[in-house]
Every structure is written in C-alpha cells, then in structure tokens.
C-alpha cells in the first residue's frame, strides 16, 4: 500500500489530491465568477462586466469549465457498481491536461491580441495553468488516482 488509509475513499478508490481539486476550480473560474455574480443580485452584472468585459469570453470560459465541473461531480459518484462512471473518470487526467492546455492557448491568444503587452492577470493565469499542466503530467499521486479506478 503506497498511500495512507485517509487518502482512500469509502469504496477503496484513491482520492484526488487537493491540488487537483484546486486546479479544477481554477479551470472552472468562469463558473465561480458566474455564481458569485448571481449571488450578488444588484451588483452581479457589474462584477461580470469587470471580470469579463467581452461576454463571448464568459461564454467560452463557461464551456471550457464544464469538463472540470463534471470531473469534480463524478469523482464523488465513484463506486464499484458504477463502472461507466469509473471509466469516464479514468480519463480525468487527460481531460484535465487538455482543458488546461486549451485555456493556456486561449490566454496566449489574449496576449497576442494586445501585441504582447504585459498584464499581471494574463501572466498569473499562464503561470498557474503551466504549473497545473506540469503537475498533472508529472505527479505520481495524480497518475495513481486515475489509474486506480481501472484496477477495481
């Protein structure tokens, strides 16, 4: 047994590391902004216009956040009787990598649109996405988390 008992759920599946959960939340940042804007009724449209001045980027962010939201939801539904869910979640590492790379390319496109002008927001997003890609690609615990699903 490579991991401590608290790293496994009640069905014996290895839980996703906390950094993966935070990465999924970051990949679904448009959904977080959307929910926060919806929760603050009178200033919701103002929040959306500050964070996403172009509504197309909000809609694109919402679409790109769907895989992360689904993975977060399906991770809690895993059990031995739900083989089809386990098969979907087994692809979670690849789905996370693809989603992060697509968002990284979108951010690079934003930098291209402003002719390479430095922005702290774009720099931080690119740094976090690059870190997430490297972590998900290289981490043994992430690899084991998703590969343990197929071993049951």
TrEMBL record:
Residues passing through the membrane, by range: 12-37, 57-76, 88-105, 117-137
Keywords: Membrane, Transmembrane, Transmembrane helix
Domain of life where this protein originates: Bacteria
Any Pfam family matching the protein: DUF2919
Record carries keyword Amino-acid biosynthesis: no
Keyword Transmembrane attributed: yes
InterPro entries on file: DUF2919 (IPR021318)
Name of protein: Membrane protein
């Amino acid at each position: 047994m490579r991991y401590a008992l608290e790293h496994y759920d009640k069905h014996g599946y290895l839980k996703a590391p906390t950094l993966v959960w935070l990465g999924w939340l970051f990949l679904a940042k448009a959904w977080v902004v959307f929910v926060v804007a919806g929760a603050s009724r009178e200033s919701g449209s103002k929040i959306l216009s500050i964070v996403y001045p172009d509504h197309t980027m909000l809609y694109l962010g919402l679409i790109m956040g769907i895989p992360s939201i689904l993975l977060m939801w399906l991770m809690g539904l895993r059990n031995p009787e739900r083989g089809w869910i386990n098969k979907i979640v087994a692809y979670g590492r690849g789905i996370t990598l693809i989603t992060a790379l697509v968002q990284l390319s979108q951010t690079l496109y934003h930098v291209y649109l402003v002719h390479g002008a430095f922005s702290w927001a774009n720099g931080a997003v690119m740094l976090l996405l690059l870190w997430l890609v490297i972590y998900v690609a290289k981490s043994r615990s992430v690899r084991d988390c998703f590969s343990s699903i197929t071993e049951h």
